[in-house]
Amino acid sequence: MPKETELKPASGATPLIAIAAAAVDTETTGPDATKARVVQIGAIGIAHGKVVRQSQLDLLIDPGEAIPSEASLVHGITDADVDGAGSFPDAWAQFQEFVGDRILVGHSIGFDLAVLERECRRARLPWKKPRALCVRLLATIANPNLADYSLETIAAWLRLEIAGRHSALGDAIAAGDIFAALIPELRKRNIRTLGEAEVACLALSDALEAGHRAGWAEPVSRPQAPAFQPVDPYAYRHRVGSLMSSPPVVVKSTKPTRQVIDLMVKRRISSVLVSDQGTPDQAIEEYGIVTERDLLRRISSDAERAFDMPVASIATRPLISIRAAAFAYRAIGRMDRLKVRHLAVRDDGGMLVGVLSARDLLRLRAAAAIDLDDTIEHARDAAELAASWSMLPGVVRSLLGEAIDPRVVAEIISDELCSLTRRAAVLAEQQMQIEGHGPPPCAYAVLVLGSGGRGESLMAPDQDNAIVFADGEPDGPEDSWFKNLGAKLADMLDASGVPYCKGGVMAANAAFRGSLDTWRGRVEDWVRRLRPQDLLNVDIVYDLRPVHGDTTLAAQFIEYAYVRAHAEPVFAKLLGEQMTTGNPFTVFGGFQLENGRLDLKKHGLFPIVATARTLAIRHGIRERSTNTRLEKLIALDIGGEPDMKAMLAGHSLLIGLLLGQQTHDIYAGIPVSNRIEINALTREQQAELKSLIKRLQSAPDLVRDLMFA
């Protein structure tokens, strides 16, 4: 894992697969935690959801008293074995250096924590309870039907072998292997993060009480949000396209270096792009780059010939690039990661549109805290993707604290989700080739649908994705290849922190992958449907955003879908008839709550998003985001300006309330949802929310009235 990722401290938001941990165990002079002395400490590292075998600690300790024979019968350690061994303070120093700030993992770790604390007290060493997880408790959560929760029984259930039982290192390794094997089992029960695991363990009151009676320490702590970290919001407000130099300066590959230097001096620029055509209108792959440093190095090494060389011989390829639509923080992270000072800028179609230099970014304040870097783009597995994804809650909380428009924050989340999906697709394709499935049988594109495609993701996204490929029939060889790819993509995203879509909107499922012709056939089927219930999940396809592969396939598909939908007004009408907001109010006008919470997506976001999307489809508006759809409708005088502006303002309010609740829940170890705690809102917020939701009750009628306007 990259160094910068490793140094990120774990929080309640950190996925279990991404935590840096150390599995530990102690052997003692007896089973009574109030009296036992430590005679051996074992520990082993855990990273990326796996035990790191080469990172081990195995220490014998002289307890300063005789080891009872009954204890020796268990662990095999006698007085002779510890004769000449170091004292506990010596071992404790080595142990602390080994574990550092890592999360401790162990079987019945409350016992180990208790004896270690008492040893520290005896030696007058400072003690701070480390953050820890107990695999005994985690196994109870993952499989409540085991006969018992001994190390042997848990290992047998998980089909693990234990070696070196009742030695500290052997039991630590066993606990580490069990923890790694429990991660996917816990994920099946919607326990993905450190905070969620801690809260689930704390709910096992009987087991915790039994440990307390035995004198054990509390095995887990209640999660708390980390200290608030202020950020400079500039890098999160501005996109690369607004900072780049455009049009870029491009020279022909054959141009002599001397002339290129003269051009750079005259134009006062630090780099030029190089291509055979010498024009800034080609795909990004056609270009190389020459910078001041490149020229200086070549002149230093070959001064006699350097000036007459064709500039192509100095140019660096392939060109490192970034999307114009990317936020500035992404460019900063990429420059820092790759140690470069220039990035080519491309549009969504992969065409060159500009150049961004470190100089262009100097307007960013030097103290800017760029917590979201470029780690997703070079993650090597699901664990590294998960670690990158887990940075989001802190950034979201900070940006909301800086009063950034919640809709902009949602765009940032969406960009990260699309980057995560793109990288997961790359890794899934690599896995296909490693397993012998060969390269893709034809061109294809991975699409993000729904809120991610609209740029409106929250902190509880589902996997809404699809695949369009160039050629092939359903169940044919091409479709089979992409079915396999879609399954690997879904598994990768689920392990990374984006759960499987409960509605099945994933490329692994046949309805959400197909050739361009297959998708066109589906569109024809959609627009001829006679019942709205037959169109479930169809509307979110109109929010699609291509994130990987051949974007022209996606462009052809969505253009066809819009043209056909616009030509068949009954289709949009049927989509509108799916809109139901439900009644969230009691007979006395208060909110109907479930466990004190209200579903803001169902009663608030959905009517706004569905109104904007349905009317956009009907009236041929190609925009993806809810904001721009509503603004276009206002410009076309559709819907009445007061209603549309109320929805615009309400959209921002709802996203802000949901993001605030979700970041709180993530750090508290509460599974993230679209429900907010009403009593946590101020009276003013409650009144504003109630007024908005009452107004949105009429959204379905509004859509039906406007369908043929």
From TrEMBL:
UniProt keyword list: CBS domain
Pfam families: CBS, DUF294, DUF294_C, RNase_T
Gene3D superfamilies: CBS-domain (3.10.580.10), Ribonuclease H-like superfamily/Ribonuclease H (3.30.420.10)
Domain CBS: 244-305, 315-372
Keyword Zinc in annotation: no
InterPro entries linked: CBS_dom, CBS_dom_sf, DUF294_put_nucleoTrafse_sb-bd, GlnD_Uridyltrans_N, Ribonucl_H, RNaseH-like_sf, RNaseH_sf
Name of the featured protein: DNA polymerase-3 subunit epsilon/CBS domain-containing protein
